[in-house]
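Predict structure. Chain length: 67.
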Amino acid sequence: MLNGTNWNSVRLKVPIDDEIGWRVEFRTMEIQLTADENSAYSILIHLIARILHENQDINLYIPISKL
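Prediction complete.
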C-alpha cells in the first residue's frame, strides 16, 4: 500500500478517509542553513500556510491528463 511520497523537504501524505484530503508536511532540509536562511524559510512556509488557510476558494486540483 502506498503510504506517502517523500522528497528532501516535503512529504505528501495519502488521505486516510473521505473527509481528510491529501496533506503536505514540510520537513527540515538536510543541509545546514544560516540563521538568515532559516528565518526566510520559516517565514515563507508561514505565509504559504496563511494564504491557503484564509483563501478557502483556491483550487489546487491538477487534472490527471496534466500529470
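Summary: The longest strand covers residues 10-13.
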